[in-house]
Write a structure and sequence with these properties.
The chain has 3 helices and 6 strands. The chain is an alpha+beta fold. It holds the Pfam family Zn_ribbon_2.
Length: 91
Amino acid sequence: MEMEQQFCQSCGMPVNDSTFGKEADGSSNEDYCHYCYAEGRFTRDCTMDEMIEHNLEYLDEFNKDSEKKYTVEEARSGMKQFFPHLKRWKQ
């Protein structure tokens, strides 16, 4: 049975058991990745737009493993549409 892909509710990165963030007690937080959430809190205090710009620093790495290659403008536009639906950025 195929599991639905989960995404970090802060940065949008795909997450799984090995990349979940951790609570202060060491338990997994399945909403966020370990880059965004550790020891029971967010690792970066930033706005949604700052997170998008941070993610763009990794666009070349993303494109290397992706069938579709995104330009900076395409990636920024896509994230600006996707991120408002993520738990951390919902208004």
